[in-house]
Amino acid sequence: MSNDANPSGTSAGAGGNDPRRGGADSAASGVSQDGAPKRPAAAPPISEANPTAPPETAAQASAPGPKASASERASTDAPSSASNVEAADLQQARADDAREARAVAASATAAQEAAVRAKAPPPVDARASLAQNLEAATEAEAATDVDIDTLTVVEEPATVSPAPKGFPPEISAVPDFGALNPPQMPPHQQPGAQPQHAYMKQSDSTWSVFGRVIAARARQIFDRAGQRMTQRTLRIGVSARIFHPEPGAKGLRGKTLQYLEESIAHWVMSRDVLVFMIPTVGHQGMLHTSNIRLRDYAKHLDGLLLQGGADVSPQSYEEVTTRPEWPGDRVRDMYELELLHEFIESGKPVLGVCRGCQLINVAFGGTLYGDIATDMPTAGIHVNEQYDQHRHSIRFPDGSSLVNMFPNNRDALVNSIHHQAVRTVGRDLNIEAVSAEDGIIEAVRYRKAPFVVGVQWHPEFHRAGGDELLDCTPLLDTFLRVARETRF
Asked: What ranges does the record give for the region Disordered, renumbered to this chain (predicted)?
């Protein structure tokens, strides 16, 4: 062989005579020395026990086999993947994965559609169904078809029912219900008549209808006014106590004051009514004049309560005072006497307390004891330094209206804070209560009015529902009930 055929520059004979060379060549060519093909030796596995394995052997062991998936074949986790995986192999792997995913989705969709078709009812042919319906209708019509020419009408003779015995002969014939005989219509319903309203009568005129409309409106106004009056809270007026200026004093003591005691107002308001103190009126005042009169208060208030306070002046019942330190209050007497007169004239109820009881008696011509201890030495004690804590017994005589107010208390215990008392009873007054010890008059009532009552004790100082002193709530309730009844 020439040198051109052997580029390595080594002769064939030299190479063939070297036994080591021949073995290596034989191993490299995969042919044994006897000419038969030789199986390559298996490479030892790469493991932690054989860390000295050559890199080529490790790469071959880690390379994916022919049965691996496309993703495994395209994996770059192996160190030799960068050298033994080409771009064409990666694209082919992705295409294979996409085909597999589409195949799985198609099979799942086909299974779902098959399940739905299995549950759905079988399809109906609309044309076949319509033809069947028409055929059934035709058969039914043929079954009920009747030849009109073969029909014959049989007329039955009319029978006349005999008339009952006792009826006139003109009703023996059968009535002709086909005859036109309508009932007569009222004149306002006949054709051409003007329509008549339901609230009108045939004899109504324009003025009569107008009068009824005005009357209906007036009733509506009165009803509304009555509702407002009945639902309005009661308004009770209380007469004022008067503090007269002291000679030479300055400040409030040098002024005229008008006031009321707190307990009397709270006692009345305990029944949820309004309380108004009625001041004196001064139409001839030195600083300010007014046209308001006490009758205006009687007109707008529902009742009057005369509270206690100063003595009634002896001049008011035409007597002379026995002691100069008890002159009484003539100014207040004149003011309250006029106030009492206006409320009685208005038909409004009046309740007098202590001094108010004495004033009611004086207003009707009665007289008073100026001082019980002086004018009636044998009488019991009706006032002392204990003031409202002093008490004594009273009783209700026959004919007293207080018996009905207090049915379970013919005798009662009340406070006593007065040194004046009723002496002679005024005209048309009834004795309602007397002192159980000495017979001093303790309550009076005017017989010619719905409610004009005076009591000598102070009911505002009695506790409601108390065990000892008389509970005067029935007295207040009766006064307010009459106020509601007479305020219209």
From this structure: 1-104
Amino acid at 355: R
Q: Is residue 111 part of a domain?
A: no
Greater confidence, 253 or 349?
349
> Between the CA of residue 450 and those of 299, 345, 432, what are the distances in Å?
17, 11, 15
Distance from the Cα of residue 322 to its chain's centroid: 68
Local confidence band at 32 (pLDDT 50, 70, 90 cut-offs): very low
State the catalytic residues.
Answer: 354, 458, 460
Residue 387 in any domain: the answer is yes
Within 10 angstroms of residue 190's Cβ, the number of other Cβ atoms is 9
- Residue 78's pLDDT is what? 46
- Where do we find the tokens 């040198």? 3
Q: How far apart (Å, rounded) are the C-alpha atoms in residues 454 and 154?
A: 107
CATH number for position 357: 3.40.50.880
Specify which residues 242 forms β-bridges with.
258
> Which residues sit opposite 406 in a β-bridge?
none
Q: What SS3 class is residue 480?
A: helix
Pairing of strands 429-435, 441-446: antiparallel
- Is residue 114 a part of any domain in this protein? no
Mean pLDDT rounded to a whole number for the chain: 75
- Max CA-CA distance within the chain? 187
In tens, the pLDDT along 279-295 reads 998 766 667 788 899 99
Number of domains in the chain: 1
Q: DSSP 3-state assignment of 189? A: helix
Domain assignment present for 415: yes
The boundaries of the domain holding residue 424 are 234-244+253-486
Show the DSSP H helices in 258-393 as ranges: 262-269, 294-300, 330-345, 355-363, 372-375
